[in-house]
Design a protein that fits this description.
Chain A: One of its GO terms (biological process) is DNA-templated transcription initiation. The complex is a heterodimer. By secondary structure, chain A is mainly alpha-helical. Chain A has seven helices and no strands. Chain B is 76% helix and 0% strand. The chains are: A mainly alpha, B mainly alpha. The interface between A and B is large, with 68 and 53 residues.
Chain lengths: 164, 215
């Protein structure tokens, strides 16, 4: 693969890396795994890049590859020790923007989301990224109706986790 | 709940600033790393499975057993069986390659999982086939030993075997080949299913969940 394509790819990914980091923070629990998953997603993106025609936005295309890698292709390594001092980025909240109850509420919500299964997480992730149900359904390969049904179930599930 | 999710969504959108930032060089380095995805593992394991049984023939001990067959009346059957199993193996390799090529990370999640499972199933069928072939082979060898009387002279057992009667030698040889053959086949089967069971546990769980939605 030629140098120019490579440069183009790395630049695009550098500018859009937040999407990948967000996926990693949802699906992993420590820094090593986060980096590991980030690397695997990068490899998958790069392998698929020649097929990216630019008919959709680079970021749109990234969602699919990143989620597919996290849900399906990535093999969690079991050897990793959970680093105590590491607080997943997902729990970092800019404290000055919320009052105490809201902040508490947010932390609980993120914790609840982290407890969801792989597929549920994918739906929540796309929902949080402001994707509509059509896009969510297309990414996962289910119907739009089922995506809605599933999302409602997840909301119920989250409610139960928050108010046991 | 709606409000809480909306609050979460707003906060989520602001998360960008808190995310780690990798430099151009760091990302560039990653593009040259090797993938360790399950598809890669399936490919590696499958290649091993397609080649390992054939490497067995290189071992001196198995060559000895084979030479017994090449020297006597069983030879045509043996050749026929080899041709048969090789053509089946080639068919499986072709099938595997075709399905493997269909796997694309650009598919939707459900299709991607379905194709991976389909590819794996090809290897699974191949394994079941080759393990049954090994068993058939073991049976044929055992029967061969039983039916042939002159083969003992083909094998060189050395001085120690001189005192043992030919019947006893024959019987123990049949037992040894039979037991070792069956145990080996069984062990290979267990290793294989454990390997894939662990590798694809997560995938299967997620695939079932997506499929359950459609009912």
């Amino acid at each position: 693969m030629n140098k120019e394509l490579e440069h183009q790819f790395v630049t695009e990914l550098e500018n859009n890396q937040n999407i990948v980091h967000k996926v990693c923070s949802l699906y992993t629990n420590d820094r090593d795994s986060h980096n590991d998953l980030f690397q695997e997603i990068t490899i998958q993106l790069w392998k698929a890049y020649p097929k990216f025609r630019g008919d959709s936005k680079f970021s749109t295309w990234m969602y699919r590859v990143a989620l597919n890698t996290a849900i399906t292709l990535y093999r969690k390594s079991k050897k990793r020790i959970r680093t105590q001092d590491y607080e997943s980025v997902i729990f970092k909240i800019k404290a000055d923007e919320y009052d105490e109850t809201q902040e508490q509420q947010l932390k609980l919500m993120y914790k609840a989301v982290k407890q969801l299964g792989d597929i549920d997480k994918a739906l929540v992730f796309l929902y949080l990224e402001d994707k509509n149900y059509g896009e969510i359904a297309e990414t996962l390969g289910i119907t739009e109706v089922n995506a809605r049904v599933k999302m409602n179930r997840i909301k119920t599930k989250l409610r139960t986790i928050l108010n046991p | 709940m709606m409000d809480e999710l909306e609050l979460l969504k707003k906060d989520w959108q602001k998360k960008d600033e808190l995310m780690p930032k990798l430099s151009y060089d760091e990302i560039h380095k990653m593009t040259w790393k090797k993938s360790s995805s399950i598809v890669k593992w399936i490919l590696i394991i499958s290649i091993l499975e397609f080649t390992l049984p054939h490497l067995l023939y290189i071992l001196p001990s198995s060559r000895d057993v084979l030479s017994v067959y090449q020297n006597n009346s069983m030879s045509p059957y043996f050749v026929a069986m080899s041709i048969f199993s090789y053509s089946i193996a080639l068919y499986f390799i072709f099938q595997f390659y075709r399905r493997y090529r269909e796997i694309s990370v650009l598919d939707n999640s459900k299709n991607l999982m379905r194709k991976i499972i389909k590819t794996r199933r090809t290897v699974k069928n191949y394994i079941i086939f080759s393990l049954s072939m090994v068993l058939v082979m073991v049976i044929v060898i055992v029967i061969g030993i039983y039916l042939n009387n002159d083969f003992l002279s083909d094998l060189d057992f050395g001085e120690k075997a001189k005192d043992v009667s030919p019947e006893k030698l024959k019987l123990s040889l049949m037992m040894a080949v039979g037991i070792v053959g069956v145990l080996l086949t069984f062990a290979m089967g267990v290793i294989y299913f454990l390997l894939y069971g662990l590798l694809l546990r997560k995938l299967k769980k997620n695939y079932t969940e997506l499929r359950r939605l459609e009912v």
